[in-house]
Amino acid sequence: MKQKLLLICALAVSGLAAKAQDSVKVTSDAPLVITGSVDAYYKYDFAGKKISNIQTSFNNEQNSMSIGMFDLGLKKKVGKAAFVGEVSFGPRSDASLPTGSTNNHIQNLYVSYDFSDKFNVTGGYMATFVGYEVISPTGNFNYSTSYLFTNGPFQNAGVKATYTFSDKASLMVGIFNDAWNVYQSVGDVSTFGAQLMLVPVKNWTAYLNFISGYYSGTEFDLTTNYQITNAFKLGLNFATYSQPSLKSSSAYGNGGFTGVALYPQLAVSKAVTLGLRGEYFSAKSGNTAATYSGVVPGESVTALTVTANIKSGPLTFIPEFRFDNGSKNMFSDSNGLATKSATQIGAAAVYAF
Amino acid sequence: MYWGGFIFTGMKKRLWLLMLCFGLMNVALAQKDSLANDEHGKYIYYHVVNVGKDNADVLMARAIVFFDMPANKASFKLTSKDANTKTIDGTGFFMVASTTSLTKHDDGKINFKLRIEIKDGKYRYWLTDFVFIPYYKDRYNNLVPKPGTEIPAEELNKKIDNKGAAHYLDECAAFGIKFGTRFKQQMENAPVKTSNGKKVVVTEKW
């Protein structure tokens, strides 16, 4: 009896050995995919205690151990159909969503269908296709954000169709709610959007973006990244925006903005990458032109941000130094007086899963 | 010595214990020792398999069918074949999951090249030129390939952390074992024949 039991155990272990070899998947079987992140930061503006000087998005709390957001995303694809649902909570989330009016906390909520290997249609509430930087801290190299990001759209709810010509070119066209960053349109679904993706040479990807509507205005945007060597990457974002002429629109005016940002990044080791963001942003003139992030019509700002990404597995530590200099006084100094420049240092920790 | 309440005495008991240990070793070694280096310093998964009396033409036909099988079409691609030299070249890929994520999801993709050479009664194959393409989460919450980033397996230790590099190399070996098992099943089976336009399975040999 004892010998039979030992034989059974030995066979069972050998069977486990065979199963261990046979259990490796060749391709993903599309389980429910769960991803997300959490982030926290400290920022100090040299102007003093609680002056929120640089008016770009997020990390605006001064001299405080602060939180960014908790982000959780789900995706499931079965055959040709997929859904994505992504929620977020925290100050960064509140600043990136129309949460105040609805308490929805939705970053992405859409369904998608592959009519063929080349043609896809997606509809719902989606992150905008415009711009270089994104809301999630895991998607940006710098922890602070640019003026171009802050003043462009964050989300566009609508329907879009994408045709992939090859792995080097694709075209997206879509129709979106009249207003940007809203869960519900103000009046109709009348914003037209398009994106042309090109890979001119290997490791160089460029996106030409266009979004236009009578309610929210018109923006042209170029976003591109070129991995020039294994260690060095260069990114570029250029955009120009014109306000809508519809007087009933909250964005009404005869102004807009133009800006360009350069993002050189150098991997100095497998754990450490150093990066620079150099941005020039100007607000267009006009008697009904708007002010953007403290940049008044006819004026401009130059922002220089030095950032490091220090990775350890899923955790990234991000120390950062930022110097913004306006064409006119647009910041406050430590005495509360108007001044042309602002300087900030900070550090953030971002955990992605 | 006690194990599960039983007392081990005598040669028979030692033999059972040896079998048990051998089985446990197989689990541990199944993946670790299968990835080698070729003469060019590239990682390679290499095997020679004897299949008995089947001639090279039959084996060649079976090997080509492998690439046409629905289960394999998505991840394997036949790039060239030579009926004279009985060689087949192909490419393929498999997904790898993160070891650090709280939840399992695709961390990247590994591309590889496949070479099959056939003779009467035997064949050999190798997988090499493993290249890791990391994935990242885009603004739409999709995991997609990171543009401009392709890491040959031989450079993994220079580009990513050691634990991650070791994991991906293990995955290459594990995939090689998995491929070998599936390919052997195909090479030992009779090819599908057709009769009056309908597919039939030959059952006389299995």
Give structural notes.
The complex is a heterodimer of chains A (353) and B (206). With 353 residues, chain A is mainly β. Chain A has a single domain, classed as Porin (Beta Barrel). Chain A has helices at 2-22, 91-96, 99-102, 147-151; strands spanning 33-45, 64-78, 81-89, 106-114, 119-127, 155-166, 169-176, 191-198, 204-213, 217-227, 232-242, 256-267, 272-283, 300-312, 315-326, 331-332, 338-339, 341-352. In chain A, the strands form 2 sheets. A 16-stranded antiparallel beta barrel of chain A has the order 1-2-3-4-5-6-7-8-9-10-11-12-13-14-15-18. In chain A, strands 16-17 form a two-stranded antiparallel ribbon. The radius of gyration of chain A is 24 Å and the shape is globular. Chain B has one domain (31-189): Alpha-D-Glucose-1,6-Bisphosphate, Chain A, domain 4. In chain B, the strands form 3 sheets. In chain B, strands 3, 4, 5, 6, 7, 8, 9 and 10 form an 8-stranded antiparallel β-sheet that branches. The termini of chain B are far apart.
Quick structural summary:
The complex is a heterodimer of chains A (353) and B (206). With 353 residues, chain A is mostly beta strands.
Features:
heterodimer; A: 353 residues; mainly beta; Porin; 4 helices; 10% helix; B: 206 residues; alpha+beta; Alpha-D-Glucose-1,6-Bisphosphate, Chain A, domain 4; eight-stranded antiparallel sheet; 5 helices; 12 strands; globular
Q: How do the SSEs of chain B run, as a string of H and E?
A: EEHEEHHEEEEEEHHEE
Q: How many domains would you count in the coordinates of chain A? A: 1
Taking all residues together, what is the mean pLDDT of chain B? 82
Helix content of chain A: 10-25%
CATH class of chain A: Mainly Beta
CATH class call of chain B: Alpha Beta
Which strand order spans the largest sheet of chain A, edge to edge or round the barrel? 1-2-3-4-5-6-7-8-9-10-11-12-13-14-15-18
Work out the radius of gyration of chain A: 24 Å
